[in-house]
Design goal:
- Strand 10 (261-266), helix 12 (271-282) and strand 11 (286-293) form a beta-alpha-beta unit.
- The protein has a domain at 93-111 and 233-460: Rossmann fold (3-Layer(aba) Sandwich), CATH 3.40.50.1100.
- The protein has a 6-stranded mixed sheet with strand order 4-5-15-10-11-14, with helices on both faces. Strands 9-6-7-8-16 form a 5-stranded parallel sheet, sandwiched between helices.
- By secondary structure, it is α/β, with parallel strands linked by helices.
- It has helices spanning 18-24, 45-48, 53-64, 70-80, 113-117, 120-130, 146-155, 174-181, 197-208, 211-219, 232-251, 271-282, 298-305, 330-337, 342-355, 362-366, 378-392, 398-414, 432-439, 448-459, 465-471, 486-494; strands at residues 6-8, 11-16, 33-35, 93-96, 99-103, 136-142, 161-168, 188-194, 222-226, 261-266, 286-293, 307-309, 357-359, 371-375, 420-424, 479-482.
């Protein structure tokens, strides 16, 4: 097999191997690593439909991560997708009314981030060995709620690594916060910042681009890497579950071989829906990619107008993982639709950085025909949770509800009868207050933790291990800082 190399979205000159891209996380010029081309699947859907999740993961990931040996990749997959998941199938498909929900929340932290963050530490430590790295790797991550805990759980006590997570104080759910601040592990640090997710994300990117800090760290035997979805080692494992979902729909005889499906994804940082786009490029018969936003509808507006504009009010919603105005992963799509023109991409990203907005050309817009944007207000999200529960007995979280609402509205508005897959990104237990209040206002005054038991009764589903663990866990992380002080905080944690 040919070695697939990776380039930065902002500089087409230099290439790196897959393992080097995983190791670095972000390119030196601030760009994101992208494969030189999207590889095609070399197995048919007919073969894939009988494969386990782990076998599907190998079939997909070997195409992207070509400098990992078969033994290395299979070992990473085996360590990732094991009893940490509460279901053997890893990502169950559930029929809810006339759509199919791909449940991506059965991992250790009950959110879809587990799907990639349970394998990233293994891909990263393997990459370090392959590339003769002797420094300790410091994972630096900003989170809008889910990435943080999933990354902490993935990297806790992994030899040769440390992890520092920044989250917006007051900008995540109580369960999300407790999951992070109670995290065990000698190598874990959690910091609440005074600001929103975009401040945290911009701060982390600035630290990656700080060459003086890089030199200081190197002297102390440290180097940064990322667990955010800007890391290609996060994105590639996400492609797997879209391939797997299509194959399972085929196996369950819900679709015919080659029949196209639509995919709806609740979207904040654009990584999850980009993975679906990559799956389509690989050969999965996907028609429309429906990008579902909450009231922070910067992506909806972009697909409507071709203008990306973050100069707007930042709204805290009941789907906090999507409360994002700078969708980092969109840059990979921009680079693609610009015809892999790194110069054009760099110019647009410079405009975003200095003016907070950019506009793509009409030629670029034409290449977005695979995508449709939609959004749900807070009221529509609540309504979707309540009516779906009343109609089917199925309880979903707020992020999934945004996608389900947008999917239904798209069908109604267009008359498109194509079967639809909804990416179900978090367990309702993670957002118990919002979910229970949507089902019945009488729960509004109750304690978040008591609502867990109510949700258990209402949904008839097991309370996840992840929730039981935090109920009486000791608070271990109490650091807080202003967004401007993130660099000092990192240096203090590492003793630099």
């Amino acid at each position: 097999m040919m070695n697939l190399l990776y380039k930065s979205t902002r500089n087409a000159e230099r290439t790196v191997t897959a393992s080097q891209a995983v190791l670095k996380g972000l390119a030196e010029d601030g760009g994101l690593f992208v494969p030189e081309y999207i590889p095609k699947l070399d197995v048919s859907m007919d073969e894939l439909k009988d494969m386990s999740y782990q076998e599907t993961a190998y079939a997909v990931m070997k195409q992207f991560l070509t400098d990992y040996t078969e033994e290395e990749l299979k070992s990473c997959i085996e360590k990732a997708y094991d009893s940490k998941f509460d279901t053997e199938v890893i990502a169950p498909l559930v029929k809810v009314g006339d759509t199919y929900h791909l449940e991506l929340f059965h991992g250790a932290t009950i959110a879809f981030k587990d799907m990639a963050l349970s394998i990233l530490p293994h891909l990263l430590t393997t990459a370090a060995k392959k590339n003769g790295v002797t420094n300790e790797i410091v994972i630096l991550t900003a989170t809008s709620g889910d990435t943080g805990k999933a990354a902490l759980a993935g990297f806790a006590d992994v030899p040769g690594t440390k992890i520092i997570v920044f989250y917006p104080k007051g900008g995540v759910s109580r369960v999300q916060e407790l999951q992070m601040v109670t995290q065990k592990g000698e190598n874990t640090s959690v910091v609440a910042i005074h600001g929103n997710f975009d401040n945290a994300q911009s701060g982390v990117k600035a630290l990656f681009e700080d060459r003086e800090l890089e030199r200081e760290l190197n002297e102390k035997g440290y180097q940064f890497s990322s667990a955010n979805s800007i890391n290609i080692g996060r994105l590639v494992p996400q492609v797997v579950y879209y391939v797997y979902a299509y194959a399972k729909l085929l196996q369950n005889e819900e679709i015919a071989d080659g029949e196209k499906i639509n995919v709806t994804v609740p979207t904040g940082n654009f990584g999850n829906i980009l993975a679906a786009y990559y799956a389509k490029q690989m050969g999965v018969p996907i028609a429309k990619l429906i990008c579902a936003s909450n009231e922070n509808k910067v992506l909806f507006d972009f697909f409507q107008t071709g203008v990306y504009d973050k100069n707007r009010e930042f709204i805290l919603t009941s789907s906090p993982s999507m409360d994002i105005l700078i969708s980092s992963n969109l840059e990979r799509l921009i680079y693609t639709i610009a015809g892999q023109d790194a110069q054009k991409d760099a110019e647009l990203m410079r405009q975003l950085n200095t003016e907070g907005r950019y506009e793509i050309t009409p030629q670029m817009r034409e290449k977005l025909s695979d995508f449709v944007g939609g959004y749900a207000t807070e009221e529509e999200t609540k309504e979707e949770i309540r009516t779906t529960y009343e109609r089917t007995g199925y309880v979903m979280d707020t992020h999934t509800a945004v996608a389900a609402y947008v999917c239904a509205k798209y069908r109604k508005d267009t008359g498109d009868k194509t079967k639809c897959l909804v990416a179900s990104t978090a367990s309702p237990y993670k957002f118990a207050r919002s979910v229970m209040t949507a089902i019945d206002e009488k729960y509004a005054a109750e304690d978040e933790m008591e609502l867990i038991d109510e949700l258990h009764k209402v949904s008839g589903t097991e309370i996840p291990r992840a929730i039981e663990e935090i109920r009486n866990a000791q608070i271990r992380h109490t650091r807080e800082c202003d967004a401007e002080a993130m660099k000092d905080e990192v240096k203090e944690i590492l003793g630099v």
